[in-house]
Amino acid sequence: MNLELLDPWEQEYPQIIEETIEDGYVLNCRFNKRGTLLAGGCLDGRCVVWDYDTRGIARNLHGHIKPISSVSWSRNGRFLLSASKDWNCIVWDLIHGTELHRIKFDAPVLCAQFHPRNNYVFVVVLQSEAPVLVDVSDGKVQRYELPTSMKSEEGDGDVKQNTNTVQAICFSHRGDRIYTGTSKGSLSVIDTKTKEMVWSERITGSTIKQLCFDRKGRDLLVNASDRIIRVFSLESQEAFPELTHKFQDLVNRLQWTSACFSADGDFVIAGSAHRAEHNIYIWDKVVGNLVKILEGPKEQLDDLAWHPIRPMIASVSGYGNVYIWSTNHQENWSSFAPDFTELEENLEYEEREDEFDVIPQEEMSKRKLGDEDVYIDVTTIDKMNPFDDSDGEDPDEITYLPTQLDEEDERRVEDEDEHHVSRKRKRVAL
Fold first, then answer.
1. Which residue intervals are annotated with compositional bias (Basic and acidic residues) in the record (predicted)?
2. How many Å apart are CA 67 and CA 46, to the nearest integer?
3. Pick from 178, 225, 289, 320: most CB atoms within 10 A?
């Protein structure tokens, strides 16, 4: 995708359903870092990866025997982390479509997320158990249990919260901190290196269901069961969150199934949990007002994800379909030249002093010859990446997946190779 060709005046949020992706019963979906691939977890334990440009299936991964609870992309886009209720987490190598690591826990896995900087570190939330930090960088699986309570300064074992269970988790922008949300509404911060809790505060009286950061890592979204979406701001990476906005539906008092930020972080979107509605609410984060309500089919909304670059949304319905929301493009065939604009009313035009002067033919020829001497480079590719939020480019980053043949295609290729070899041997014998 050439970012220079994108329309700068394009609408900032989608309006209509552009396409429907149907492949099994999808429960959740996530985009990769560039938005070129879309991964979905299915009810039958499969993980499907679609090429977002062609909408074709790039990988069909079989490894779980129970529904997928969450999927997460690694930083370089080569690995996919799938968490399931069968007590297992699988790290998939998408280049070969095989399992890289399979980790079994002592309880069903609620969600798992990759480290934003390290492709071999991720955190896992277990049902009624303490969260776990997993490191597979050395080829061996190392587990570190994370604290669920904050000890007193004397270190005598006294705790602030001893009955809370972690329900949601996410890394900070650089991965140096881990944010957890508990069943009793406590928001906590854990240092990734020391694995100790450095801050904890009760922000609501209900369960925190979801946590996520925007692209810049300055705003934290908290989705709780009290029907309120809270946005916390961080002045710096080392600062603690402070509440800035609250979003809710005061009329219908809807419960929010899933929520996230837009690609540029200017909007907050959330999907309602009503059984007969597939509505997506869009708020302006700065002003705090409701901008748009996207009304879809009469199906329950289970999950949603905003495209990391373009104003597009992928939403998962209760029937297992993935709907792609995009902007409403209006074609205008009245513009024939790049600098042509259609006027709605008469305008006064002030001409330049030499705009309509008669230029001799010799001078015109000299100008054309001068323009021909200008060197135009058509081979050098400018590295334009304004959406990169990292310290540098990752040389191992995978944007698109190579085509992978199934068993029937491999057998057909092998048969064709054997046929060509036998024909060559006959020619040599003759």
1. 410-420
2. 8
3. 178
The boundaries of the domain holding residue 280 are 12-150+162-326
Q: Yes or no: say if 75 and 132 are a contact pair by the CB < 8 Å rule.
A: no
Q: Is 240 exposed, middle or buried (0-12, 13-18, 19+ CB in 10 A)?
A: middle
The pTM (predicted TM-score) of the whole model is 0.80
What does the chain come to in residues?
A: 430
> pLDDT tens digit string along 170-198?
999 999 999 999 999 999 999 999 999 99
Q: What is the CATH number of the domain that holds 112?
A: 2.130.10.10
Nearest to 212 by CA among 365, 30, 14: 30
Distance of alpha carbon 181 from the chain centroid: 20
**Per the domain annotation, does 42 fall within a domain?**
yes
Q: How many other CB atoms are found less than 10 A from the CB of residue 112?
A: 27
The residues pairing with 259 across neighbouring beta strands, listed in sequence order, are 270
Average pLDDT over residues 346-366: 81
9 Cβ contact list (under 8 Å, min separation 6): none
24 in a domain, yes or no? yes
